[in-house]
Amino acid sequence: MTARTAARMREIEKGFLVGLGRAAGGSIVFALPVLMTMEMWSLGASMDRPRLALLLVAIVPLLVGLSHYIGFEETETWVDDLRDAFVAIAVGFVTSAIVLSLFGLIGPHLSFDEVLGAIVIQTVPASFGAVIAQGQLGQSDEADDSRNKQAGYGGSLLFVASGAVFLSFNIAPTEEIDFISASMTPWHAIALVLVSIAMMHAIVYSVGFEGQSATRPDDYSFWSVFVRNSLPGYAIALLVSAAMLWIFGRLDDLGASAALRLVIVLGFPAAMGAAFARLIVGGQS
Question: Alpha-carbon distance 60 to 240, whole Å?
């Protein structure tokens, strides 16, 4: 091995370790809201195991896409992105286990199944934080900017789905959404749908947040952007909300009307998460 090759290997190893450090930091920051939420502590132990496994499997494609566009290290192939997605899950799992142990929430007093469930459910937001640590916490460079610009329409929808998943995941297990949905009339639900769509469109295209110049091409009219981006984005937010509520068992034994109101209520924060995530893309759509 030549000196140049050895130096290159050390540089790659150092870069990977730095990336892991960023991933660990990002995973803790993004997971803290659920790491310190009481509902999540018991939910991991009691949640239906097939649904929990399905949730973990379902986030893998999102993590792969996020790795491709704003992952914690530059990648060249989708195989690299898949590897980084599993690295993010592993980092999220380890950091969640460490924090839960430090809080005294897992230990010998719990069964292995309860401990594993508690860690796995926290791994979901932690893995999102790990995979986007470079894009949001690391130093940006020309390679990062180039990847973001190549996101395009498909990339923007990926970010919309990721933002909706992350925010709805944090809120779906809480009892407050049950109280809100029970207090709403059909007119409240309709108004919330309209407000959600309007705010989602305004956040991405109208009110001057950083990144808006890249999300709305000059040659697209208001209605074109609204129909092509805002409406599909809200539809994705609703689908994600329904999926999260089902995974957490919140739709079990509910009638169609009550379930729809619950989805609309959760769809509001999901749409906000989707809108702000859309700004991260900065891709032409």
Answer: 15
Do residues 173 and 63 lie in contact, with contact meaning Cβ atoms separated by under 8 Å? no
Residue given tokens 């469930």 in the structure block: 117
Measured between alpha carbons, how far is residue 138 from residues 4, 25, 231 in Å?
Answer: 27, 10, 32
- DSSP letter at 209 equals -
Mean pLDDT rounded to a whole number for the chain: 79
* 226 and 278 belong to one structural domain: yes
- Picking from 105, 123, 147, the residue at the C-terminal end of a domain is 147
* Residue that is written with structure tokens 């530059």 in the block: 74
pLDDT in tens, 90-121: 999 999 999 999 988 888 888 888 888 889 99
User: How far is residue 191's CA from residue 29's CA, in Å, rounded to a whole number?
Assistant: 34
Are 199 and 269 in contact by the 8 Å Cβ rule? The answer is: no
